[in-house]
């Protein structure tokens, strides 16, 4: 398993930092709110700011949000 503690997080802006290893890149918000580094639905690591934004909306990554778009938004119309 990947040992993230060996790597250093680099701050991108006030609210987001990233970590880059040989294999992967992860972004995470610097936030009071707890946000995991991977998607609870598909277990893929968040690699883009868009993934984190999607997580804040629906507790899932951008890809899962797109996959579930119809479900997420058809519910609200009813
Ligand atoms: Zn996902």
Tell me briefly what this model is:
The chain has 78 residues and is α+β, with helices and mostly antiparallel strands. It contains 3 helices and 3 strands; from the N terminus they run βββααα.
Low-confidence spans: none
Number of domains: 2
Enumerate the strands of the largest sheet in spatial order, edge to edge or round the barrel: 1-2-3
What coarse outline follows from CA principal-axis ratios?
globular
Total strand segments: 3
Q: So how many helices? A: 3
Bound molecules: zinc ion
Termini, distance in Å?
Answer: 43 Å
Give the helix proportion (percent range). 25-40%
**What integer is the average pLDDT?**
86
Main beta sheet, described?
Answer: 3 strands, antiparallel
Short descriptors:
single chain, 78 residues, alpha+beta, 2 domains, three-stranded antiparallel β-sheet, 3 helices, 3 strands, 18% strand, binds zinc ion
Describe the model.
By secondary structure, the protein is α+β, with helices and mostly antiparallel strands. It has two domains: 26 residues, no CATH class; 42 residues, no CATH class. A three-stranded antiparallel beta sheet has the order 1-2-3, with no helix packed on it. β1 and β2 form a beta hairpin. The longest helix is centred in the last third of the chain and has 10 residues. The chain binds zinc ion. The site of zinc ion has 8 residues, from α2.
